[in-house]
């Protein structure tokens, strides 16, 4: 899930590498679904287990941002934007769930 600046949520899926060219991807059955190519980006990710509640998401985002700032090599590109990756269905036990919060970052220091 990704939250836009206006607060809307949308869901994304990553297609297998055989569909690297958008034209090769299968046509969606639903007209509300579209296939889009994303430009390469540099991101920072924090993985966590359990339920991805609003409070837990905010707590983990703050934890990720603190780690990025502490490292000093990157900075968060847009403080209001983030992505939530949830990898499991609703039947998965909480301690076995795998989630990630993800933010775009920009490099502050040149790569060594």
TrEMBL record:
Its signal peptide is none
Per the record, the domain of life is Eukaryota
Q: Which Pfam families match?
A: SOUL (PF04832)
- Give the UniProt family note: Belongs to the HEBP family.
Q: What is this protein called?
A: Heme-binding protein
Q: Which organism is it from?
A: Vitrella brassicaformis
């Amino acid at each position: 899930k990704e939250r836009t600046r206006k607060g809307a949520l949308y869901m994304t899926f990553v297609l297998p590498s055989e569909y690297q060219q958008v034209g090769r991807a299968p046509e969606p059955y639903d007209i509300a679904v579209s296939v889009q190519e994303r430009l390469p980006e540099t991101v920072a990710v924090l993985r966590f287990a359990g339920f991805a509640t609003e409070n837990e998401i905010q707590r983990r985002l703050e934890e990720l941002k603190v780690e990025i700032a502490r490292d000093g090599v990157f900075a968060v590109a847009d403080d209001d934007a983030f992505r939530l990756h949830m990898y499991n269905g609703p039947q998965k036990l909480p301690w076995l769930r795998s989630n990630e919060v993800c933010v775009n970052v920009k490099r502050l220091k040149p790569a060594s």
